[in-house]
Amino acid sequence: MLRVGLIGCGTIGRAHSLSLWALRKAGLTDAAVVAVADPDADRAGSIAQPNGAEVMGIAEVLGSVDVVYVGTPTATHEAIVEAAAARGLAIYCEKPLGPDLDSARRVAALLKTVPHQVGLALRSAPVFAAMEQAIRSGRYGRLMTVILRDDQYFPIQGAYASSWRSDVALSGGGTLIEHSIHDLDLFRWLCGDPERVACRTSSFFGYPGIEDFAATTLSFADGATGALTSIWHQVLSRGSTRRVEVFCEEAFLWTEDDNTGPLHVQTSAGTEVIACDPPSWVDEIPVPEAGRRTLGLYAEASRRFLASIEAGSAGSPGEGEALAAHVLVDAAYRSAASGGRPVQP
Q: Which residues, at least 6 apart from 270, have a Cβ–Cβ distance to it below 8 Å?
């Protein structure tokens, strides 16, 4: 049995706990959560109890497990990853790796020394796998542009139940680094590495150093472009939403459900709707049906990570993909600081 420790028992820690429970129940892993750590004792206990795990300090968790999930505020990742890597533990590190590019580089170097995976969960989404395959196949001609709108309510309330994302010392920034690092990784997956990045940001809600709006344009060597609009708003009845539109020479592809789709493909012959359903074991996750799709994304990421550990292979996405996404975040911030001037990543 792989002994798993969860460090950080907030929203993402709970998601990993439920996901690991579902994987174990489905017989897809023998990994079990045996230890958790969080400064909030009640929060830690609420995850420890259903897993039959113990609440410990961080050092004690690291001395009691084979695998550790790091789901703490961004600025704390480096110290935890350093301590876990020193013990040779397998590490699942949530994104962003660090609050700035230099910190991200140090965390990436540490992760490279041990079995690991990074929480860029969109790479586990069936709909984006289908979209990437359609683009790569070439059957719709050359890729022309990808347009992505990513919006959610300001994540210090509601389901997120934390305040640290409004503190630049802990988060490193706002919607670009905390939320849209997923999106910039998706652009790399779909389009490759851009030659130029241009960005403008705004802060409507007054948290110093925390942008809640960003408009980013990416330019690629083959003439394709990417346009990302990332927004943290105050529409509390609206859940986190990604709408992705892709124009190829001979097709328009789109989705607005970043978990399971469907993927819509419109050509001159008409429109095809491609189902991108999660695996059946996702239905075993013990949460209301509306929440299972999102958790299914994390569960599939964990399944791949744990399978890679058992196979002795590299987890994916790894530190290389994570660091490349950080480079794009850094380029976007540098462009925004210069008034939107295009910069090289």
A: none
